Amino acid sequence: MLKKGEVIAFKTDTVWGFGAHPEDNSAIKKIYEIKKRDSDKPLILMSNDFNNLKKYIKKIPNYANSLIEQYLPGGLTLIFEKTDLCSPLITSNKSTVGIRVPNSEDFYRIVEKIEGCVLATTSCNVSNEPPVKNYKEAYQKFSDCATIIPPIKDSIELTSPSTVILCEDSCYKVLRQGDIKL
User: What's the gap between Cα 59 and its chain centre?
Assistant: First the structure.
C-alpha cells in the first residue's frame, strides 16, 4: 500500500496516526489534504528504532542521548536540525524535523515491512479536531481516503498525544506536554 502511494491510518502508543512513505511526496501531500492541514505545519518521522532516524538528523546534543535512552520507545517526540535527506514537504520547509519511536506493537508490525522502517506521520484527525480514539472511529471517518490498518487489540481508547521537545544546542524546550512530564 505504501509503495503504491497510499496513506495509512494506524494505532500507536499515544494516538492513532496517518502515515506515508517518507520519500513519496505525492502521498505526503495526500496526508495534508486528508487532514485539511496547513502546509506550514510539519509532519514527523517515526520508526521502530532510533537508529533508522539518525540519517535525518544533523546533530544530536549530548543531553538528548539521555532523553533517548530514558524515554524511547515511548510518547516523546524530539525535534532536531534536519539533514537534506528529509523532504521539505515533511518539514514544511523548516530546518528541523520531529522524530519519534513509539512503544507500539501495532506500529512495529507495519513499519517492519517497509524499506528503511520509517514513516512520515501525524495524528489521525482533521486539523483542529481531536485525534481518533479507536479503529471503528478511524474507519468511519477516513476509510474513503486512507487504508485503515486494524490493530492487534483495540480495547484501549487512546487520548494523550506525545510530549514534544525542541532539542537545541545546549538545552531543550518543551513545546507540548503529553504523558511524559519534562
Answer: 20
Give the single-character DSSP code of 56.
Answer: G
Of 37, 10, 59, 26, the residue nearest 129 (C-alpha):
37
What nine digits make up the cell of 112? Answer: 517492519
Chain-centroid distance of CA 94 in Å reads 16
DSSP 8-state class, residue 158: P
**What is the distance of C-alpha 118 from the center of its chain?**
9
Q: What is the pLDDT of residues 54-101, one digit of tens each?
A: 999 999 999 999 999 999 999 999 999 999 999 999 999 999 999 999
Q: Where are the domains of the chain?
A: 8-176
All three cell numbers of 134 = 479507536
The helix/strand count (H/E) of the chain reads as: 5, 9
- Which pLDDT tens digit goes with each residue over 136-146? 999 999 999 99
Do 23 and 84 touch, CB atoms closer than 8 A? no
CATH class of 8-176: alpha beta
